[in-house]
Design goal:
- The protein has one domain: 60s Ribosomal Protein L30, Chain: A.
- Helix content is 18%, strand content 35%.
- Strands 1-3-8-9-10 form a five-stranded mixed sheet, with no helix packed on it. Strands 2-5-4-6-7 form a five-stranded mixed sheet, covered by helices on one side.
- With 159 residues, the protein is of the alpha+beta class.
Length: 159
Amino acid sequence: MAQKVIGIADLAVGKDSDTLVTYALGSCVGIALWDADKKQGGLVHIMLPSSRENSNPADNFRKFADTGIQELIQSLGLIGSPKNKLVAKIAGGAKMFATNSSLFNIGERNVEAVKRYLQLMHIPIKASDTGLDYGRTVFFHTDTGILEVKATNKKMVQL
């Protein structure tokens, strides 16, 4: 059993009894993809909705919903989990700053982009804990597919 920490704009895959963890999901979204047959999965920590909004080709494309999820799907394929066996669980996408403008509500835009891209990839979302106004830390257990969501002064949620 190993614990792997995923930083901002990063991803990892695991199997057996690995635990993948990412901290401090504010407006960012953590996307866990799981293959129940092989008891393995992966987690990506995205920051922004779309790589099309990016003008810097040297950028880390794991930070975008579309390209980060695509790389995670490819990484899982390399360890034997085809896209058609994957299910998703997502957390994060909080509204961290008070504003009435949807343009500045990056958390909401991130969640919408994640949902849209997963639908496009035909990967069903089995559970989610998104929105509201607080940050989250997630622990993804690759042997069970459970995504634990922890937040300060909140009850831990298991998805």
